[in-house]
Q: What sequence folds into this?
């Protein structure tokens, strides 16, 4: 054995393996979740916001009576009608708004630059952020459904196939939102301007995608614009889960179109993955 071989075999680095990208990413999920819940503004404007809006809609519009798919047909309460849209909005806020603002702030205060000097790769960083969105998204959806059933008296589906649909729409919606949030974080020029850039974009999308307004009542051109973005499809998928079948006639094509929901969300998932990888930098290019 040569001296070089002996040094390699018995040196201080022998037998030491650096953690892989996956293990580093998974280990960051817990840290990201703790950091999220330690930020009061993030918790209020992303985690609790759907609860607040459901309460406002239920209190403000319940006196107007039930919403019906057509005159003479059985209707549902205002809270029951808006629940699917608010579930979709929760996914969008937890993913796009939360990550776009959070990463822009981390970039502005130098956190990303310091992380760039560690063994942490962008892939591991992505896993930590996306994992945090899934954890908080699951908690948010579970608590919102619990509040809907116990506080607002909204009947939840009992058919297993409805919950299967909920699961895949939720997974695709959260994954798409998280990746688009990472990509959108490159747009703000600084951490201070992140909220001013991100929030108006998402607010407009929520209004035209059937979250705060009844989608069937919007002009056709506005429905067509909303169809270009993932939130409309997330909300439509959730309506297919939580609204009676009679309400499918109110959709743009008179049906739930779950196949197109899957296609649209998968397409945006791929777009978000490509954009997030192309645009992400530990520091701004113009820094």
A:
């Amino acid at each position: 054995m040569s001296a070089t071989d002996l040094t390699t075999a018995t040196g201080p680095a022998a037998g030491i393996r650096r953690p892989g990208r996956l293990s580093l990413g998974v280990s960051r999920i817990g840290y990201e979740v703790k950091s999220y819940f330690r930020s009061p503004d993030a918790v209020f404007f992303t985690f609790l916001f759907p609860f607040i809006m459901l309460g406002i809609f239920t209190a403000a519009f319940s006196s107007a009576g039930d919403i019906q798919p057509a005159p003479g047909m059985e209707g549902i309460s205002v809270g029951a009608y808006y629940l699917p849209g608010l579930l979709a909005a929760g996914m969008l806020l937890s993913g796009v708004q939360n990550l776009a603002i959070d990463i822009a702030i981390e970039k502005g205060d130098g956190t990303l630059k310091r992380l760039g000097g560690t063994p942490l790769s962008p892939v591991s960083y992505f896993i930590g952020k996306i994992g945090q969105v899934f954890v908080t998204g699951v908690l948010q959806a579970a608590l919102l459904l619990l509040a809907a059933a116990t506080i607002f008296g909204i009947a939840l589906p009992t058919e297993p196939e409805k919950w299967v649909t909920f699961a895949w729409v939720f997974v695709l919606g959260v994954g798409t939102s998280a990746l688009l949030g990472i990509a959108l974080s490159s747009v703000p020029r600084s951490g201070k301007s992140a909220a001013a850039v991100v929030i108006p974009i998402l607010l407009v999308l929520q209004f035209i995608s059937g979250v705060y307004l009844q989608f069937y009542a919007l002009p056709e051109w506005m429905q067509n614009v909303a169809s270009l973005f993932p939130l409309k499809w997330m909300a439509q998928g959730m309506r297919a889960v939580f609204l009676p079948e009679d309400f499918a006639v109110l959709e743009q094509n008179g049906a739930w179109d779950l196949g197109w929901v899957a296609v649209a969300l998968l397409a945006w998932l791929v777009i978000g993955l490509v954009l997030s990888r192309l645009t992400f930098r530990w520091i701004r290019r113009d820094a």
